[in-house]
Write a structure and sequence with these properties.
With 437 residues, the chain is mainly beta. 9% of the residues lie in helices and 40% in strands. The chain has six helices and 28 strands. It has helices at residues 2-19, 66-69, 78-81, 136-139, 202-206, 326-330, and strands spanning 40-46, 59-65, 75-76, 83-85, 92-95, 101-105, 114-119, 133-134, 144-147, 152-165, 171-184, 189-197, 209-219, 225-234, 253-258, 266-269, 285-287, 293-296, 309-312, 336-344, 347-353, 359-365, 370-373, 390-392, 395-400, 407-413, 419-425, 432-436. A five-stranded mixed sheet has the order 3-27-26-25-24, with no helix packed on it. It has a four-stranded antiparallel sheet with strand order 4-2-1-28. A four-stranded antiparallel sheet has the order 5-6-7-8, with no helix packed on it. Strand 21 and strand 22 form a beta hairpin. The two termini are 21 Å apart. 52% of the residues are buried.
């Protein structure tokens, strides 16, 4: 193991010497575990397509060691020196806990839905595994997905949203079908598949409410329940047309399935808030050390306390006595959590926007329900497309750079909150760094 790792480091060092660039990689496992020492970190960047920061022109990646990621004398230029991950638009990337593999499901286009597995060898050396699978026949060409453990990725989608009437032609609902696919990350194969209708209450459906997007799947600590985040919409009753955005909203909802069977779908509802928990290209729920699943929300209505962190108990129901409003914790208004990472010992790192449209990074204490804004330069930062926060031992790695401008990797100590600047990120006009995997 040490010999293999040393060989990989030598390859990465030679690549860095030629290009003077490096990259970082993220661990999406909710349990950071003990400090494994040296590992690859893969930095990802999204290219502009039509407008600066749209991120729709494809994705490039580059990997460096954790030592190089922490070194402010190292310069990383993923756009000139990185490897182009297959995807017509922004790739949806996940990584193995040890940093040795990078996973992707291509998003849209002729190969949308194709799952690829890459071996991380350092620098821009990402040979692709011999086997790939096409998930499009199950979850379409634009699935949302996440790694839920080291063996499995879960891809989800909502399809065939349509108006449903009774036998007499009376409107009942505007409803879609959930599709859930389990991917074996080790053997690169399909492990299981289920599709089902997920009805809300008859009263809510009659008013036009529906779940129109699924995302951000996560497992509970016992590994026997799968939680899937939702994005709710209200349609004009009898149509598939979205109702006015000011229409009343329902409580935050999560779909719960048995795992690994993917059977017995159940919708649970938080009465604490009405935000969505589907995320945007990033996980939103994590199983913590205490057995609870903690879940961030966003797209809250103005004046309702901003984004919340909710929790689900081991009974697979929301704990509605747990109130954690980010506005109150940070002293801001209308906060919006883009994504976050559970970092162990009841703490997490949150990437958010405040009511003044200024993005920031905060450390949250889930037990005390407090948040501390970290001293990281984030002027003109937009974390809206951010995908990967990596935890290696007590160190949390994030990429911070404005669209089209240079930035840095920042390393946060999850215990103390201490922040240090690491490797420099070299940017190009219109492009942005979107994660460390």
């Amino acid at each position: 193991m040490k010999k293999s790792l040393l060989n990989n480091i030598l390859i990465g060092t030679l690549a860095a010497a030629v290009s003077m660039v490096g990259c970082t990689k993220d661990n999406n496992d909710p349990d950071p575990g003990t400090d494994p020492g040296e590992r690859w970190l893969t930095v990802s960047g999204a290219l502009m397509q039509d407008e600066p920061g749209d991120g729709n022109g494809g994705t490039r990646v580059y990997s460096v060691s954790t030592d190089d990621a922490r070194n402010p004398d190292v310069a990383i230029n993923v756009f000139d020196n990185g490897f182009g991950v297959k995807s017509q638009r922004t790739a949806r990337l996940q990584s193995s806990k040890d940093g040795n593999f990078l996973y992707n499901i291509q998003y849209t286009g002729a190969d949308g839905g194709v799952f690829n597995k890459y071996i991380v060898n350092g620098g821009n050396n990402f040979p692709e595994a011999d086997v790939s699978i096409n998930t499009a026949n199950y979850v379409g060409t634009s699935p949302r997905w996440a790694k839920v453990d080291e063996q499995t990725g879960i891809a989800v989608n909502v399809t065939n949203i349509q108006v449903i009437n009774d036998d007499n032609g009376n409107y009942l609902a505007t409803r879609g079908k959930a599709t859930v696919l389990a991917i074996d990350l080790q053997d690169v194969s399909i492990r299981g598949f289920k599709d089902f209708e997920f009805a809300l209450s008859a009263e809510d459906e009659a008013l036009g409410y529906t779940i129109w997007r699924l995302d951000a799947p996560a497992l509970n600590k016992a590994g026997n329940k799968l939680y899937i985040g939702t994005w709710l919409r209200k349609h004009i009753p009898g149509t598939t047309t979205q109702d006015d955005a000011s229409a009343p909203r329902l409580g935050t909802k999560t779909i719960v399935l048995d795992y690994p069977s993917l059977a017995n779908p159940k919708v649970i509802t938080s009465t604490v808030t009405t935000g969505d928990n589907s995320g945007y290209r990033s996980p939103m729920s994590y199983a913590a050390d205490d057995g609870y699943v903690y879940q961030a929300t966003h797209r809250e209505l103005p004046g309702t306390g901003g984004s919340h962190i909710l929790r689900i108990g081991q009974d697979n129901e929301y704990d509605n006595d747990y109130i954690f409003r980010l506005d109150a914790a940070l002293g801001t208004t209308d906060s919006y959590i883009y994504t976050w990472k559970y970092t162990g010992n009841g703490t997490g790192i949150v990437l958010y926007r405040d009511g003044n449209d200024v993005d920031g990074v905060a450390r949250v204490d889930l037990n005390a329900r407090t948040a501390t804004k970290l001293n990281i330069p984030v002027q003109q930062i937009n974390f809206s497309q951010y995908q990967g926060i990596t935890v290696v031992g007590e160190n949390v790695y994030i990429a911070v750079a404005p669209v089209g401008q240079d930035g840095n990797i920042y390393i946060i100590n999850s215990r103390s909150g201490e922040v240090t600047a690491g490797a420099k990120l070299i940017n190009k006009p219109g492009n942005q760094y979107i994660g460390i995997h």
